[in-house]
């Protein structure tokens, strides 16, 4: 798919940063932990700042983190960040609040704790959304996956051919995403793609990266430091 520069799409990025990060065992939100001399959220924002397809960035955060996040944004000249808003009670609610503020026709949703995403991954997902309306970044499963029953007994081995680890960004036509929120109402969803899946809307894969990990545990922070060190 080729576009003239003037025809390139513009997307709003919603960064979901309202989680608590309790599994880290840290005293503060994991997005504010140090990674290569900067906060995790700094590294998360940077590739969206560098993307020519991102027109604005909306950060959805916990109220107690908003002042520190705002300082990071101002000190680094992240002028695409137009709003930092308070999140909801669930991730889905937080993303919905961010998407409602988006001014572009395309909404790119990303985990605040995924600081290793690249501009290439972001741009490819946005361009793919023009064709398919709903796209998620993902990588093929490499390990053997087994299904178990309620007693931890193995029921069988799943074929890896059609199994993917889902990542973010996840990119949607805004009109479609807001329609899906309205149709499903309140409820638990693992991610925003699942909302569309339950409504019978097709979601397509865009190539992610095995480096695009989510910071969930202390070990993840070690891996992220190693990956960033190898890049520079």
Describe this structure as you would to a colleague.
The chain is of the alpha/beta class. The protein has one domain: Spore Coat Polysaccharide Biosynthesis Protein SpsA, Chain A (Alpha-Beta Complex), CATH 3.90.550.10. It is 34% helix and 26% strand. The chain contains seven helices and eleven strands. The chain has helices at 40-50, 66-75, 91-101, 119-132, 174-184, 192-198, 218-231; strands at 11-17, 34-35, 38-39, 54-61, 81-86, 106-111, 134-140, 145-148, 154-158, 164-173, 204-207. Strands 5-4-1-6-10-7-11 form a seven-stranded mixed sheet, sandwiched between helices. A two-stranded antiparallel sheet has the order 2-3. A two-stranded antiparallel ribbon has the order 8-9. β8 (145-148) and β9 form a beta hairpin. The mean pLDDT is 94.
